[in-house]
UniProtKB/TrEMBL annotation, chains A, B:
<keyword id="KW-0804">Transcription</keyword>
<keyword id="KW-0805">Transcription regulation</keyword>
<dbReference type="Pfam" id="PF01638">
    <property type="entry name" value="HxlR"/>
</dbReference>
<dbReference type="InterPro" id="IPR036390">
    <property type="entry name" value="WH_DNA-bd_sf"/>
</dbReference>
<dbReference type="InterPro" id="IPR002577">
    <property type="entry name" value="HTH_HxlR"/>
</dbReference>
<dbReference type="InterPro" id="IPR036388">
    <property type="entry name" value="WH-like_DNA-bd_sf"/>
</dbReference>
<protein>
    <submittedName>
        <fullName>Transcriptional regulator</fullName>
    </submittedName>
</protein>
<dbReference type="GO" id="GO:0003677">
    <property type="term" value="F:DNA binding"/>
</dbReference>
<keyword id="KW-0238">DNA-binding</keyword>
<feature type="domain" description="HTH hxlR-type">
    <location>
        <begin position="1"/>
        <end position="90"/>
    </location>
</feature>
DNA sequence: GGGAGTTGATTCGATTTCCGAAGCGGCGGG
DNA sequence: CCCGCCGCTTCGGAAATCGAATCAACTCCC
C-alpha cells in the first residue's frame, strides 16, 4: 500500500521510467520529464533516494538501484497494457 | 505516457486496486481508500469512467471493466515487487 | 404520509502541493 | 577574469486536494 502511495505521487512513476536508460544528471532528467519544476523534481528525488529506488553516483548523476530496476521490471506489464488501452480507446473513437 | 499520467494521479492506482474485489458503492469505496475526500473521489471516478477502466452498473455501483481488470493484472508484478521492497527496507533498518 | 437512515453526488473555504522562474555557489574552458 | 553549465534552493502565485456540510432520491418502519 505504501508502494501505491509512493508511486501514485505525481512524477515518481515517470522519473523511474526515464531513469531506465541509465544514469543521468539533474537538469537532463528534468528535460526528459517534460521540463517539470526543478523544486518538485528535487523533492521527488529525495523521496526516491529515501526509498532506495534511486542512488546518486559519485559524479552526482542519478541512477536506478537494484530495487529501482525492480520497479521498472514490474512496470513493464503496465506499459504493455497501455498499448492495449490506447488501441481500445482509438477503436472506440472511430465511428 | 498518458497511462503514466493517468495512473500517476493521486488515488487512481489505489481506486483500481480496491475495485479488484468486485463492484462497490461510492461511500464504501471511499472508506476503503482511507476515507479520501469525496470530491476528489468523484473526480477520479469520472476520469476512470472516461478512460473506460471503470463502469457504473445499473444499481449505481462501480466496477472494473475489462480494461480495468487489465490494469489490475498489470499491477500485480508491482505488488509482488512491493513485498521485496518492504523486506529490503526493513532489513536495512534493523540494528 | 411522516420521520429517520442510507445512498450517490455537489459545493465551498481552507490547506497542501505543484509550478515556474529567478538565483545561488561551484566548476571548467576560453 | 568571464562566461556558461552544473546541481540545487527559494519564493510567490496557481492548481490540486482536502474535509465537512449539504442536497435530492430512495428505503424501511411505524
Amino acid at each position: 500500500m505504501a508502494a501505491l502511495d509512493l508511486l501514485g505521487r505525481r512524477w515518481n512513476l515517470r522519473i523511474v521510467w526515464e531513469l531506465q536508460h541509465g544514469p543521468i544528471g539533474f537538469r537532463a532528467l528534468r528535460q526528459r520529464c517534460d521540463d517539470m519544476s526543478s523544486s518538485v523534481l528535487r523533492q521527488r528525488l529525495t523521496e526516491l533516494l529515501d526509498a532506495r529506488l534511486v542512488a546518486q553516483q559519485p559524479d552526482a548523476a542519478y541512477a536506478l538501484t537494484d530495487l529501482g530496476r525492480g520497479v521498472f521490471q514490474a512496470l513493464r506489464p503496465l506499459a504493455r497494457w497501455s498499448d492495449a488501452w490506447a488501441s481500445a480507446l482509438s477503436e472506440d473513437g472511430r465511428d
